[in-house]
Design a protein that fits this description.
The protein is an alpha/beta fold. The protein contains eleven helices and eight strands. It starts with a helix and ends in a 5-residue tail after the last helix. InterPro entries: Amidohydro-rel (IPR006680), Aro_Compnd_Degr_Hydrolases (IPR052358), Metal_Hydrolase (IPR032466).
Length: 327
């Protein structure tokens, strides 16, 4: 009897070992939750970041009149960042700290190629010739940036009209974009100027609205049309030659949850989200380095609700239209 029980015990041990080994082969492991999963999975493939910068002060010295001195932010770092937020394509934008020297940005553009990137340069319209623009166009440049806001420069409507017409005349043959970093107060003048330019215009960072810090008619009612310049901005969007970048909320909002920006953002999406609003990260968030942009991206997706077609336009197709990507 003892021999029988011992034999039975040995058989059971062998059976257990066999079953355990088989479980190692056939049982699929439970997936580990990714730290990058969640709301950002709604961002469509081949999306575009329509506004970001590369900065290398060591290799490419800053302009003497640079308003600030940023840390080094290389192309390799930019691409690593973009991969974490599910974005494949980028638009390199000339920062004010380099003035008209586009070398840093253009070298990065050459490394990427026009299949994955576009760029927006800055140049002096009085000294730049068409052949230079054509050369830049061949490597993926599709716009010129006029940056008044970063350098604290103001112009009256007449001065603004003259300079914008000068740029428009130069870029029109190439079908480039005239990108403006100006305050929303400028839209009153732009409402009359833009229809005469014959080029597409893109306004940086929600058109740089001045959101009130304390209680105001806007903050209590949530009506963005009470903000100075907002009605003119909407009129520009309805004229169909103006785009707006949904970007850099930290340069505008006074609230960490962006509740003061939300009414304005939602109205922009309602009016032109499927046609002329484009998303951008504003990486590396100069003067706000180290900021995590993912909560903003999640908030933008929240503003879109369940409208997946709107998300596709905002993160991809509108940018393809704006930056001359479509074949």
């Amino acid at each position: 009897m003892t021999t029988f029980l011992q034999s039975l015990r040995n058989r059971l041990v062998l059976l257990f070992k066999f079953s355990w080994r088989q479980s190692l082969i056939t049982t699929k492991p439970k997936p580990i939750a990714s730290s990058r999963s969640g709301p950002l999975e709604r961002i469509p493939p081949n999306s575009w970041d329509s506004h970001m910068h590369v900065v290398n002060p060591v290799k490419y010295p800053l302009a003497k009149d640079a308003q600030y001195v940023p840390k080094q932010h290389l192309l390799s770092e930019a691409l690593k960042f973009e991969s974490t937020v599910r974005i494949r394509n980028i638009v390199l934008v000339q920062p004010s700290i380099y003035n008209y020297d586009n070398s840093c940005m253009l070298d990065a553009l050459r490394l990427l190629g026009p299949q994955k990137a576009r760029a927006v340069v800055a140049f002096d319209p009085n000294t730049t010739i068409l052949s230079t623009l054509q050369e830049w166009h061949s490597i993926g440049v599709r716009g010129v940036r006029v940056n008044l806001h970063s350098v604290g420069k103001t112009m009256d409507a007449s001065q603004l009209g003259i300079i914008l017409h000068q740029y428009a005349d130069m870029i029109r043959p190439l079908n480039w974009v005239l990108q403006l970093h100006v305050s929303i107060a400028t839209t009153t003048a732009l409402e009359k100027i833009v229809p005469q330019l014959g080029v597409r215009v893109c306004l940086d960072h929600f058109a740089q609205p001045a959101l009130p810090e304390n209680e105001s008619p806007y903050s209590t009612t949530g009506n963005p049309y009470l903000l100075p310049g907002f009605k003119s901005l909407i009129n520009l969007l309805e004229q169909k030659d103006t785009f707006v970048k949904m970007s850099a909320p930290y340069r505008i909002s006074k609230e960490t949850d962006l509740c003061d920006l939300e009414p304005l953002a939602k109205e922009l999406l309602r009016v032109a989200g499927r046609t002329r609003i484009v998303f951008a990260t504003d990486w590396p968030h100069t003067r706000f380095e180290g900021l995590d942009i993912r909560p903003f991206m999640e908030k933008v997706l929240e503003w879109c609700g369940e409208d997946e077609a709107l998300i596709e336009r905002l993160f991809k197709s509108n940018a393809e239209d704006l930056w001359d990507v479509r074949v």
